[in-house]
Amino acid sequence: MSDNAEKRLTPHDILSVHAPIMCWPINSENGDPRKETSFNRFWILQTPTAIVGFSVICPHAGCFVSGWNVERRLLVCPCHGSAYDVDHNGQVMDGPAPSPLPYVHIEEEEGFLRIASAISRPVGAHASRAD
Q1: What is the pTM of this model?
Q2: pLDDT tier, 53 (very low <50, low <70, confident <90, very high otherwise)
Q3: pLDDT interval class at 91 (50, 70, 90)
Q4: Which residue range or ranges hold the Rieske domain (predicted)?
Q5: Which residue from 24, 37, 77, 96 has the fewest beta carbons nearer than 10 Å?
């Protein structure tokens, strides 16, 4: 579900923009957005090979990954500068993050997008805080 439009996303929604769209997954049983925790929130975008959803939670200190570097196609955390390459499974390109940004594979089902895999790694901060 799109974060600002309160509607289910389609492949066209993703392919028609050249930036990530923030969204929440929906409960498959009742159709409600799963907004219980920010750990459920994702950036959805098209990579060269697939539509992928990346966690909005930085693995370094748990900050909100909110920046988008258009030229380098990186999601960026403003807290300590970690930057993640969305075309290479969220690989850390800059900053102190200890691991790639967690992601899920997205696929189309009955015209809408749905999560098609388990999350690649646990979501949340994993580094000790010395800063």
Answers
A1: 0.85
A2: very high
A3: very high
A4: 20-115
A5: 37
Neighbours of 39 (CB within 10 A): 15
Domain 11-115 maps to which CATH number in 1.10.510.10, 3.40.50.880, 2.102.10.10, 3.50.50.60? 2.102.10.10
Structure tokens at 39: 């750990």
Cβ count near 127 (within 10 Å): 17
Query: How far is Cα 61 from Cα 87, in angstroms, rounded to an integer?
Result: 23
Q: How would DSSP label each residue in 66-128? A: -EEETTTTEEE-TTT--EEEGGGTTEEEESS-SSPPPEEEEEEETTEEEE-S--SS--S--S-
Q: Calculate mean pLDDT across residues 48-74.
A: 94
Q: Measured between alpha carbons, how far is 107 from 78 in angstroms, rounded to an integer?
A: 29
